[in-house]
Write the structure tokens for this entry.
Amino acid sequence: MSGHDDAPRAGLVNSMATFYGYQWIFLRALFRAVSERFGTEGLSILERGFRRYGYYRGQYLRDRPETFAEGRDALSLVRNWDTGDYALAALHTAFELQGSASRVTITFPCVPGSDYFYSRDGGEVLGLFWRNFLVGVADGYDEATGVEYMDISLDPHAPWQLTWTYRGAPEDVQPTPFPDVFAQPARVIQLTRRTIGVFAALQMYVARELIQAFDASGEKAVREASYAFGAERGGTIREQHLKEGVPINFKSFFGGLQERDPVESIFVYRGERHISPGIFQVDCTYCPLAEVWAEEGGKGLALGYMFDMENHRGLVESYHPGAVVRWDAVKPRGDNTCKFRFLIPELVTAADPDWAQPKHRQQDR
């Protein structure tokens, strides 16, 4: 494959890896907010949320048309996995997939997430997550499903094995090459959309458990974690831009942020857009997260809006403290489009849209 052909593939890989990594940033923020407020009791509630999230994922895999066509077993569970875990791991030479319909073992180059937590605090949450999430998946998929795994290590150089079992399935070992997902553009777009989409389910089910257990204080912890998730990302970009001498404004910020979705196939935009130093104006017609929040109806959308609001505030306020987060419409509030209308008032010029001009903002008050 030529270098020219590699470029689109590299973009697809980077996009999936970026969205896949969001869950580790959020887990760290959750762990810090919950452990500081509620101690071990709070961590037990987190575990409950992780199991509920896993059950959701297992039920989804059980309900897939592909699963009905093939039948449920350990191989089918792996073949029809709905996020980028296996596709990304398969890019490494250490990845291996072996087994039969009754027992499939996957060798990862390391515990997914260990590369993020290795140099950061809060790594305890990775074990809490995987132990509960995997059991939840098995329960949601089928009562005949089991899961085994090696100890959760934070060493990013230590291979890790995960085994799915299925009682009653054929035990004859079968060749099980994992497909090159990144050679199938439509498939990789679908898988990347789902990878970021189920992030909404993780946030939603953990938030629900925390609020049920601790009510307003639980909601406060969820908001803190959601803000911190955005702030880690925005703050990192700010530090990079300051180091490189890049102007701290929306044109710099959102230009770089768009590298995570270079062909705009994961979040889809339509209509006129205006991105200037002081303005970020775009209309998003498709959002994978909103699609998942909507599965739980009004309550799911309300939890989604809580995340959307705090995440975006953290994202842009950590980058530029004067930024203002607003929408003309937003999917988690029941609209069919997200109309972003963010601004940095001090950087707005006469060339920017009328709605952003000081006289219009004062009238809106």
User: Anything to note?
Assistant: The radius of gyration is 21 Å.
